[in-house]
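Quick one: co-fold with zinc ion.
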Amino acid sequence: MLRQMKESYFYAPLISPIYRELRRRWHGRKFAGTGVECPLCEREFRCWVDQEGSDVCPWCESFARHRLLWLYLHRQTEKLGDWSNLLYFAPDPFLDWLRRRSRINCVTTNLCGRGVDVHADITRLPFAAGTFDAVICSHVLEHVPDDARAMRELCRVLKRGGEALIQVPLNRANRFTDEAPDETDPLERERRFGQFDHVRRYGSDIVDRLTAAGFLAQLVSPMREVDEATARRYGLFDDCICSCRKPVADIQVTVEAKPELPSRVLDPAAVAAPA
Ligand SMILES: [Zn+2]
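Sure, here it is.
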């Protein structure tokens, strides 16, 4: 599994885009049907591609988390009208949908991947304070050893009143995040956090972490009010999005002190689920 994950990041100029296009067309035929519908590329298929347990769109290669963001934002299209300047980590199928649906100026960034406007370290963003109306940061923070500094940077580059939508692998049953920023063994990272390059698995205390970074933060569940048939149809799953707003004025926040024992695998049965 580890070798497969590393290979998924492999990219060869010219060859990889051709391979991807051929795979897309092959998948389009192989999965032809009407059982499921991808809201991002607006195509129907017999079923999703099962990629290590994830439901992936045969055409645009969206994951359930991309479609969850779609579910959240397509219900609130007025948000898109309020955003004129968006910082986006990093190109993915949801961004393609967003660009087709709005005229938002999207600045794309990541550390060193292909096809972005700016290569940048999320803990030292090369943007002035208050540059963006909104930030979308999906499945990045779990890779970053100093996530507190990254969260402060996301808040800094937002305008006051601006919104950040943040997605991470989250275990809501755990009150506290399990992390090992100094762990370098990819096999241990995969065993403990689910992927060879993750350094933590967040618990519900991510709200406290975002609050400490300066946000007014809450976990939202877009799947509420979605029936089972719709969830199956669009390949959605019950997950949370961190909705974070930069306060319009400075505020004093008090965050619950973290106990000394969070850096270990927490037994969900021994930890009370959050209310
Ligand atoms: Zn699609």
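If it helps, The CA atoms of residues 1 and 7 lie 10 Å apart.
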